[in-house]
Design brief:
single chain, Rossmann fold, 33% helix, alpha/beta, 2 domains, 375 residues, six-stranded parallel sheet
Length: 375
C-alpha cells in the first residue's frame, strides 16, 4: 500500500477522502468530533509539506440534498481545529481555490455510492493527487473511495495506514496469547470474524445477544431474549471449537429498560417472560482474567445492554480489564468504542478503530476496495 512517503505534494492540490460521518444532535451540533480529530495528523502533514487541500466526505445516507446531512458543522469544527478557514463548496463544478476547501456531502451526488466513473473524473479534475484517509469508508467501493484512486497518483493517509497495519499485525504476528472478545446482537454479522479468530486466536470470548443462538443450539431455553434464528446454524457450526468461550451465567430483566425488575441467573437457561441482557458476574470475572493475562486483545461488541445501568457491569468489566492489561489492546470501533467513552476509558487502549464495519471486514480477510485501489 502506497503511503505519504511515496508522494510529493509541494505546491500541489490534494484531494483527501476523510471520514467525517460524525453524530449530530437535533440542532446540527456535533456530539463527538473524534473522527475529525483523527484526520488531523494527515491534514497537518500535507499542509506542512506545502499542499492545498480539497476534502471529500460523506454524512449519513441522504436520499436527496436534505440540509440535515450538510457537512457545514464538520467544516466549522475543522476550521477551529486547524486554526484556518475551511470553506464549504456546495457545487462540485465551482470549487474555490482556497488553502483548505471541503466538498459538500459526496452522497448528495447521485453516482457516489454506485462508484460512477464519470463522477470520479469530476473529483479527479479538482486535484493533482489523491489521499485516502477514510478507513471507516474503505470497505465501500464508491466514487470517492475507489474509482477516483485509479485516476490520480494515490496513497494512504496516516490514519488509514495505521488502521491497516495495526489490524493486520494482530492477525499476522500478535503477542500471545491472542484473545478476541466478540459481542453484539447477531451471529450472522460476525460469523466470518469468529471463524477468523477461532483459526488464529488462543481464546474467543462471546457476549451480548449473540450468545443466545449458541445456547439455543445447545438446547437451552432463551426466554424472551433477543435470539437471531438465522444465527443458530452458524453458531452450531463453530460450537465445537475448543477455543470458544460462552457465558456461564447471565443477568436478566423482564423488559428492555433501566427500571425493569432484574434477576441474576446461575446458568444460562432464561425463564419465560425474562430476557438475558448481560453476562453474569462469574462470566465477567473469567473474561476479565483472560483479557488481563493476554498478550494481544481484540474487542468488538458489548457484553450486554451497557446503555442501561443495571446491565452495564459485564461490558464495564471488559472495558476496565482492557484498560488495566499490559497486552496490546485493539478495539474495533462501533458500540465498543461508545462503551469505552461511556466509562471514561477511551484513552486507555492502544488502538481504537475509527471504522467498525471496515475493521471487521479486514479481520475477516475480505479485501477493502478503498485499500486495494492504493496497492
Amino acid at each position: 500500500m502506497r503511503t505519504l512517503e511515496d508522494l510529493d505534494v509541494e505546491g500541489k492540490r490534494v484531494l483527501v477522502r476523510v471520514d467525517f460521518n460524525v453524530p449530530l444532535d437535533g440542532h446540527q451540533n456535533i456530539t463527538d468530533d473524534a473522527r475529525i480529530r483523527a484526520a488531523l495528523p494527515t491534514l497537518e502533514e500535507l499542509r506542512e509539506k506545502g499542499a492545498r487541500l480539497v476534502l471529500a466526505a460523506h454524512l449519513g445516507r441522504p436520499k436527496d440534498r436534505e440540509p440535515e446531512f450538510s457537512l457545514r458543522p464538520a467544516a466549522d469544527r475543522l476550521s477551529e481545529l486547524l486554526g484556518t478557514d475551511v470553506e464549504l463548496a456546495e457545487d462540485l463544478d465551482h470549487v474555490p481555490d482556497g488553502d483548505v476547501v471541503m466538498l459538500e456531502n459526496v452522497r448528495y451526488e447521485k453516482g457516489e455510492t454506485k462508484n460512477d466513473p464519470e463522477l470520479a473524473k469530476r473529483y479527479a479534475a479538482l486535484a493533482d493527487v489523491y489521499v485516502n484517509d477514510a478507513f471507516g469508508a474503505a470497505h465501500r467501493a464508491h466514487a470517492s473511495t475507489e474509482a477516483v484512486a485509479h485516476l490520480l497518483p494515490s496513497v494512504a493517509g496516516r490514519l488509514l495506514e495505521r488502521e491497516v497495519r495495526t489490524l493486520n499485525g494482530i492477525l499476522e504476528d500478535p503477542r500471545r496469547p491472542l484473545v478476541a472478545v466478540v459481542g453484539g446482537a447477531k451471529v450472522t454479522d460476525k460469523i466470518g470474524v469468529l471463524e477468523a479468530f477461532l483459526d488464529r486466536a488462543d481464546e474467543v470470548l462471546i457476549g451480548g445477544a449473540m450468545c443466545f443462538p449458541f445456547f439455543k443450539a445447545q438446547g437451552h431455553s432463551v426466554g424472551d431474549s433477543l435470539c437471531e434464528e438465522e444465527g443458530v446454524e452458524p453458531a452450531r457450526r463453530v460450537m465445537g471449537n475448543e477455543k470458544l468461550r460462552l457465558p456461564v451465567d447471565l443477568v436478566a430483566g423482564e423488559e428492555f429498560n433501566a427500571d425493569t425488575p432484574v434477576r441474576a441467573i446461575d446458568g444460562v437457561d432464561v425463564p419465560e417472560g425474562w430476557m438475558g441482557l448481560d453476562i453474569g458476574p462469574s462470566t465477567a470475572d473469567r473474561y476479565a482474567d483472560s483479557v488481563k493475562n493476554a498478550g494481544t486483545v481484540f474487542w468488538n461488541g458489548p457484553m450486554g445492554a451497557f446503555e442501561l445501568e443495571p446491565f452495564a457491569a459485564g461490558t464495564r468489566a471488559v472495558a476496565e480489564a482492557m484498560a488495566a492489561t499490559s497486552a496490546t489492546t485493539v478495539v474495533g470501533g462501533g458500540d465498543s468504542a461508545a462503551a469505552l467513552a461511556q466509562f471514561g476509558l477511551d484513552d486507555e487502549v492502544d488502538h481504537l478503530s475509527t471504522g467498525g464495519g471496515a475493521s471487521l471486514e479486514l479481520v475477516e480477510g475480505k479485501p477493502l476496495p478503498g485499500v486495494e485501489a492504493l496497492k
